[in-house]
Amino acid sequence: MSKVKKKVKTIKIDVDKCNGCRACEVICASFHSAPKYSSNNPARARIRLIRDPLKDIFVPVYAGEYVEAECMGRDKYVIDGKEYGECDFCRAACPSRDVFKEPDSGLPLKCDMCEENGPDEEPLCVQWCLADALIYEEREEEVEEDVKLGDLELGLKSLADKHGLRTLMETVARMTQKG
Amino acid sequence: MRYAETGYNLEIDLTRGNIERVESDPRLTELHLGGLGTNAKILWDRVPPEVEPYSPENLLIFSAGLLGGTPAPGANRTIVSSFSPQTKLMGYSMMGGFFAAELKHAGYDKVIIRGQSPDLVYLWINNDKVEIRDASHLKGLGTLETAEIIRKELNEPNSQVAAIGLAGENRVFYASIEQGRSSASRLGLGGVMGDKRLKAIAVRGTKDVNIARPAEFIQHCNDILKYVKFRDKNPLGMVPPILAGLGSPQEMRIHDEEWHTTNFTWGNARHRRKDFWTEDISKSWKETQENATQRFLSCYNCPLSCGASVDYPGVPKYMMKCYSKLTYTMAAMSDLEFGFKINSNAQAFGVDGFTTPQVIAFALELYEAGILTDKDLAGMPAGTEERFFWLLDRIVRREGIGDILADGTYWAAKKIGNGAEEYAHNNIKKHEQLPLKLGMLNPIYFLMYSTGEKINITQIEGQFPQAPFSTKEDREEFVKDWIQVPDEKFKEYFLNWEMRGERSIPHYPPVDATCEIVDWMEKMHYIDDSVGMCAGLSSFPLKPAYHLHNYPELISAATGIDFDEASLSQAAKRNRTLIRAINNRRGLRREDERPPEDHWKHRFPELETKLLDEYYKFKGWNNQGIPTRETLQELGMDYVGEDLEQRGILIHEQS
After folding, report:
1. Which of B80, B439, B551, B576 has its CA 20 to 30 A from that of B115?
2. How far apart are CA A117 and CA A135, in angstroms?
3. Which residues of B touch A36 (CB under 8 A)?
């Protein structure tokens, strides 16, 4: 595989500045509804605020890759005397929890940095975070060229994992005939 | 499809344990918007005036506003409505936090609770699955502790919980409903919840809330955020820091408390301490506050962080907003440290932060005056702070004297007798007011205090500055970008308003202008309370983000129902008039509409009479403060007029 230059989009998360308002979840869910902004539902957001005010825990986490299996072991972090849960920093949509999955279909969700909005726009969660807990940064990196899965492929892959590829193919075939 | 609203209410009968999901009439949204407006309509239709607040027939309604659950910044209020055990009138109280949006996402605009459970229970709303669950293990527990336990036992860390504490369970007349750092505190709705033996409501929702015209709507939301940013960078000059920004007053952020401590009264709403604020106090209070507050906190989808988590040494952690850090401090003639300490208990018990300290200060004053004796207060410790803790505990348990004090100063004074009534001096309609005693009557505030249906000045004031600015230059500067005014004439009223001389209070603004100003301020609150908008972004601060000119388009884009300024104003007027009629039906008349006698030192009986006369006319009410048949007809509420006539409250006039 050849090396290519890639723009790495980063969101720097300053948890100390988070005020717990969940505007990031709101605007994310709203932007990704179809048509855009036609509905709101933080349960569909690709960012989740892990929020426990009495323990002073505020962690915005972005949806990353879908994974088939849950972790073999789980870790807890203690930082500045605060104990963070075993999945509090994890970006995966995985079988052990229901975050980063569509609430109705269970299909996995993944942060796309609001790509649809064009290259010059900051992700919307950053724009709506007036507390400046989310800061957008870009840098260039040389990486190996990779084949990326699109949304549809990702969804199909998870369905195949769940029901088996054969069942999925048969279902698609049946739907095609009906159509 | 219904937009912005879900179109469904949840009907819970605690007596029979029955749960129903009922579709609401979409026409009511056009007429009453939602939230407070539709709550009032339900209370008018279903709770006759004979029903006692503490009875199974009373309803307790938790409602999201029309914009709750949409991305409109700050639309996070839950409007709780019922009848108040203290005033016996309609009681409505709002809380911010995260409850309203969660309820919408669960698929409901309102939870309507009737009946009375035989045992203590809590309600668990998880989308379509709704259960009434045993709460015997939560009996007597604090509000935050209750929420924690419920989340854990349901294994739902994302559920939102509104709960009562001991005060609510024991039906204290000023018990609150607490939800995280937010609470519905005024008028004793926590007592109504306790009377129904409902310890808490937990809700989790993962459904969509739909927007009618998405592109248009989000543009309005972005404009609101842009303005919030602008105001953050450009605080208003000319006013004290506490009034310079947006939001609920930034009590957790601001250390400079000169304005509150020298303008508001201490003890049982008695003493002004004009020289209280010194450099030493300023330094020590700043330190106390910075040590106590851990993090500034916002409600759902709001950038303003008006609250904070409090980590004060030696007391359980809790969350605080706004002004309660000072209400206990000042009632006890004490220090800010005491305020941070006692609020932890007060919030766990679930009591109103305005009424409670005043009731305790009232009791201590009665003791000093010999009206309450050592016998009445047997076991009371010596120091004032200790006495506050002790009395708070007696009140929420309704033990000994606490059982009498738990009804608030008005009813307690009646029971205690022996001249005690003189000491319950700071009430309007039996409800304790802000501890404020001033010199010269202000006609605007006179009308707001007298006629406000919420019976709480912060829930009607806003928009128009509280006092004139001293220089013409400042006034001219202020009106330059005052786009929120409904009409240019309001700028004139303000420009001409002087500190002294002919154009100063009490005779300026003139009566007709005063009526218009009060009506404008009140109208904005009624819109907020129906759409579920926090007053901190809208009706309360000067030059707010939401106003009469951007609201109609924003609400129209969200709901798909076309509102313009006139029809939105009409809906607000309809809601306001309906609540007035509900209270008229419960006996509210002109004689009840007056501020505390000692609120101002200088009173003007003739002017006050004229103000009420003209304001009633302006509102379309008769001389007793009752909406006329014509007014009700014009608002499409002839059924209200008929009812008031049948009951002999309005006299039928032959044309």
Report:
1. B576
2. 17
3. 214-215, 218
Inspect the interface and report whether the beta carbons of A19 and B206 lie closer than 8 Å: no
Chain B residue numbers with beta carbons less than 8 Å from the beta carbon of A23 are 73, 301-303
Write down the ipTM of this complex.
Answer: 0.95
Backbone phi and psi for residue B611, each to the nearest 5 degrees, phi listed first = -60, -50
Cα B88 to Cα B37, B463, B586: the distances in Å are 19, 30, 8
- Among candidates B105, B157, B211 on the partner chain, residue whose Cβ is nearest the Cβ of A43: B105
Distance from CA of B317 to the nearest CA of A (A): 6
Read off the amino acid at residue B464.
F
Instruction: Note the Cα B589 to chain centre separation in Å.
Output: 22
Domain count, chain A: 2
Question: What would the pLDDT profile of B520-562 be if each residue is shown by its tens digit?
Answer: 999 999 999 999 999 999 999 999 999 999 999 999 999 999 9
Q: CB–CB of B225 and A41 under 8 A?
A: no
Q: Which residue in the block uniquely carries the two structure tokens 């988070």?
A: A18
A93 with A128, same domain? yes
Same domain, A86 and A164: no
Q: Is the predicted pLDDT of residue B655 greater than 70, yes or no?
A: no
Query: Domain range for residue A128?
Result: 2-145
Give the C-alpha separation, B106 to B100, whole Å. Answer: 10
For residues A154 and A132, state if they share a domain.
no
On whether the CB atoms of residues B454 and B430 are closer than 8 A, the answer is no
Q: Which of B364, B335, B321 is nearest to B95 (CA)?
A: B321
Say if residue A26 is in the same domain as residue A80. yes
Contact of A19 with chain B, judged by CB distance below 8 Å, is answered with yes
Residues A124 and A178 reside in one and the same domain = no
pLDDT digits 0-9 by tens, A11-50: 999 999 999 999 999 999 999 999 999 999 999 999 999 9
**Tokens 């040494």 map to which residue?**
B313
One-letter amino acid at B263 equals N
Q: Which residues contact B417 (CB under 8 A, 6 or more apart)?
A: none
> What is the least distance, in Å, from the CA of B229 to any CA of chain A?
8
